[in-house]
Amino acid sequence: MRNILLAFLVFSNFLFSQKKDSLVFSEQPKFTSKQLIIPATLMTAGTIVLSTENRDFSVTENKNFLAFGGYPEDYLQFAPHVSLYAFEWAGMKPKTDFWNRTAILTKSEIIVFGSTYLLKKAIKKPRPDGSNEFGFPSGHTANVFAGATMLSMEYGENHRWVPYVAYSVATGVGVLRIAHDKHYWSDVIFGAGLGILSTKIAYWTHQYQWNKKSEKDNLTILYKEHL
What we know:
mainly alpha, 65% helix
């Protein structure tokens, strides 16, 4: 009788664990064509501007405009990434647990940095200051918009102000890249769309396997509890 009861408990725990796992990992955003509208529009607009703009002149006469002795956007571009963890530490609840969130962020960074690098090498458009031919697209802008998109997806539903702040910071980084004579408008516009798309792809393709207990782990825990 005891063996039958133990078997029943094991089976019940197995079913409950499976149901619990499905609830925990049911946050995966589903792909819809509507989600492509914003990044596709930005990337298309950036491409159109690139084909029509004159890239033979400096955007700003004062190259140190708003530089404050350096380039703050070098650090501001990572503000959304840091906030992904700082907000949770402050008591705000994200949609995704720590390990899956970190895996998604890592995937997003690989996509955004890999794609911007390949495009820069292939297109070879000069920067306004003439420092090199890696102007298109803007890596800083792509990176910060990727982070802003992830921050909005994790916290935006419960905290409506997060997307406004995140995308304001991202836009500010893009403007600073133009003000500091590092990019033209086309570079920034395209980079923003690329960053958003990179994070969307990271979510769409994520399988939520990190930090997920296996069936074997569940059975082992239950067995030890009944010894």
